[in-house]
Each structure stands twice: as structure tokens, then as C-alpha cells.
Amino acid sequence: MIDYVLIAIIGAIVSMDTTVFGQFMIAQPLVSSALAGIVLGEPQSVLFIGAIMQLMWLKLIPAGGAIYLNGNLGTLTAVALYELIRPQFLFSEEALLFIVILSGIAASYIFGYITVCHRRINEFFIKLAYKALKEKRLFLFQTVHILGVFTAGIGGPVCLLALVILGKQFLLVIPTVYYLKIEAFSRYGLYSLLGVGLGTVFSMVWIRKGWYYPLVGLFAGALALFIL
Amino acid sequence: MEQNSHNIQTGIKTFELFKIFLRSLFIQASFTYKDKLSVGFAFCLIPGLKHISNNCEHFWQLLTHHSCYFNTHPYLASYIIGAVLSLEKRIEKSPAEEFPDIETVKVRLAGALGSLGDRLFWKYLKPFSSLVGLSIVFLFYNQFPWNWIGGILCFLILYNSVHLFYRWNGIALGYKSGQNLIKSRTIVWIEKINFILACASLTVLGILVILEGKLIATHSYSGVIIFITAGLTAFFINYKKIFPFFGIIAGLLSAILLFGIFYWLGIEL
């Protein structure tokens, strides 16, 4: 029970930092997975989830009217699933990591639509704010605006918990024959997800003028490894 | 409100600008697809408008005026907040003079800063600071948990130093320069900063490829081939801007395909 409460608290922080308050990047997978890992007791493995998800969702831009796929809450779903399923999981750690990361990716899409719902709820608040403006009630005007932070802080963790509970039930009832099938591939699946993440970021920051910079980086990386 | 009338001559104090800065952190709280940052923008202006307005009626008039549709980058909105307060103050100080229409200034600045902000913060700064953080994590992989602490701190400090600088500088500079802020160095330099960040990100990406490749190579060399193939597939799919989810699917499919080929050929995995 305490685990679920802790997941909800971190979910609230992540949900608020993602789009409504500050955007200090605490919600980013790299940070939130570490936070969740420390709180839930297994930091080292879940940070691998954070690294993969961070790379994979870097290209998400929470701009304007775009449907923002919420990779931050998706990462938290993956971390929570990993921590909750691990004691009962019969197969390798790589298989579990691979499965929860795929679940996290799917959850990111679901959370994207939850962000849409949150913004639709805000439309109601905006109407209230305009009403307060007409009636010249400054306190109400400001309160209604700030309420948006609280709806995100409540709605995000509620949906997160629902997805985590459903996900846990679902992953534990999958027949073992399916896990046996992916067992051999899971480690390579993780490698490929790391590659997908790097490829995605590469496509995002790529500029023709700077074509030689990755080569400089490759050389610098090799030099760093040689020195260390 | 009446007591504010004498303050028009003196200008908004730094403490009040700081209050506006704190409010600007909440600018997206009531974001909607229809009105975007409308109410959030007005919410940030409140301390300044209280200072500028002559009386209660004037305050509500200004607040209503600034609560209509508004959209820009949330961090760089602070420049527009400062500029709007500066213009409103000048209009209040010398009503006989002619000033540019505030709404026009707002719309023009919002468009330009929205595009600049998206590119600087989302397209270049976030990937760069994340990549630096991840490089530290993988470079000192065996020094857990210090590698993670260092990586995360580096990521947060790199990103937030620029983020908070632009938020605060926007309000202070916008208030000082009014509609001329678009010529300020912090804005003009954004495209140069973007280019530097893109080049630096590409370099760090190269480093990260080596570090991750080395980590995978300690387990298996065929894993490195799968890692590179999946990465290149995702790169081409995303570069061509095909459906975003397809990059992940295509990367995984290429990995499965390669895995199958290795398995079929009997190559040691």
C-alpha cells in the first residue's frame, strides 16, 4: 500500500512539472526514474529505464495545440510496474525491463490523451475566470487559474495508479509461454531501444553544416574510454 | 488601488518584478487549446497592473484587455509580460504621446518568441543537457550512484540556468526596453546559441554512442550490431518525419529481424 502512495506522490510532482508548473525538468525520465527508484528501493535497474525513455522521448515538444505524448508519466508507469512485479517475476531481469519499457511506451500514449482531457477541464476553469472577471472578483480569478495545477496534480497520479494496477494484473496473467518466447530476445531488445533513443535524438539535432561533429564525438568518446 | 496613483512616476520595483517572475512559473496552469495562455498571462500581469493603474476601474479594464487569447513560448512569455507592463506604464505616464498599439506589439512578439523559444528550449537545450547528463552516467558507469547523481545534477543545472535566466531576464529586460526588446542581445543571439547547441549535441551524441556501444560490447558483439541497426533505422524514419511511433516500431522490427538472422545462421549471440 505504501508503495502505491509513494508512486502517487511522485506522479503528482511529475504531472505538475510536465506542463503546468515551472517545467524545471524534474519530470524528465532521467530524474523521475531516479527519484522513483530511490523511493521504491531499487534505484540501479530502474535508472536504465530512465536512460532509455529519456532518449526516446526527447523529441516530444509540449508546444501549443499539439497532443503531447506524456513520456514522463509513461516512464513512471514503467518504473512502478518494474518495482511491483519484480518479486513475483519468474524470468530474467532483462525480460522484465524490456516488458515494462514497452508498457511505459504504450502508457505514454494513453497519458497523452489524459493531458488533452486536463486541458479540456481547464476550459471550464477559463469560463469561470472570465465570469470572475466580469464580476470583478480578483481572488476567484486567480484561484480558478491556480486550480489547473491541482487538477493536474490529482488527475495525473489517479490515472497513473489505475494504469499501474491494471498493468500489474495484465503482465502477471500473461501465460509464461509468451515470456519464454521473448526471454532470449529481451536483452537485445533493450539494446535496440537504446539505439532507437539515440537515433531519435540524432534525427532531432542533426544539421548538415555540423556533419563532422558526431565523428569528433566518437573520437572524444574513444579517447575518454582509453584514458579512464 | 487609489494609493497606486503616485507610483506611476516611480516605476515597478524589483521586488514586484520578482513577484511577477514567480507568477510566470504558473503561466500554463489553465492552458487550454482554445485560449492557450490567456488567463495565465493576465495572472502574471496582476502585480504590475495594480501598480500601473490609476483606479480600480482602470485595473479591471486592463486585466480584461489582457485576458484574451494569447500564445507564445511559456518561458519567453516573460519578455512580453515585461514589455506590456512597460508600454502600459508609459501610456499612463504620458497619455498625450502616441504609442504603438499594445495588442499589435503582443501579437508580433508572441509569434517571434514562440518560434524562437520552441527551438532553443525544446529542440536544442533539452536534448543537449540530457545528453551531457547521460554521458556522465555512462562514462562513470561503475561508480554507482555517483554517476547518476552527477548526471542528473549536470542535466538540471545546465537546463535550468538558461531557463531561469530567460524567465527573469525577460521580465527585467522587457520592462526596461518595451517593444524594442526584440533587438536585445539575449534574443538576437538565440539562433547562434541554437547552432552551438546543435553542434555540441552532435558531439556528445558521438561520445554517447561510443560509451553505450562499449557497455553493450562487454556482453556481446552481436548486440552492438543490433544497437547500431536499430539506431540508424530510427534515425531515418524520424528524419523523414514519418508517424512518430513508427520510429520505435521500425527500430524494434529491424532488431528482431537481425536477431532472427543471427539465430538462423547460428552466430553466437
Features:
heterodimer, A: mainly alpha, 80% helix, B: 269 residues, mainly alpha, 73% helix, 0% strand, elongated, disordered N terminus
Characterize the structure shown.
The complex is a heterodimer of chains A (228) and B (269). Chain A has 228 residues and is an all-alpha fold. Chain A is globular and about 70 Å long. Chain A is built from eight helices and no strands. In chain A, 80% of the residues lie in helices and 0% in strands. Chain A has one domain. With 269 residues, chain B is mostly helical. Chain B has a domain of 175 residues. The longest helix of chain B is centred in the middle third of the chain and has 38 residues. In chain B, 50% of the residues are buried. The interface between A and B is large, with 85 and 100 residues.
What Rg of chain B is obtained from the alpha carbons, in whole angstroms?
Answer: 25 Å
**Residue runs with pLDDT of under 50 for 5 or more positions of chain B:** 1-9
Secondary-structure element string of chain B = HHHHHHHHHH
Count every helix of chain A, treating DSSP H or I runs of 4 or more residues as helices: 8
Q: Which helices and strands occur, and which strands form pairs?
A:
The complex is a heterodimer of chains A (228) and B (269).
Chain A (H helix, E strand, L loop, with lengths): L1 H19 L8 H12 L2 H14 L14 H15 L7 H42 L3 H36 L2 H30 L7 H15 L1
Helix pairs in contact in A: 1-2, 1-4, 1-6, 2-3, 2-4, 3-4, 3-5, 3-7, 4-5, 4-6, 5-6, 5-7
Chain B lengths: L13 H11 L13 H15 L3 H10 L11 H17 L8 H38 L6 H32 L7 H4 L1 H28 L3 H19 L4 H22 L4
TL;DR?
Chain A is an all-alpha fold and 228 residues long.
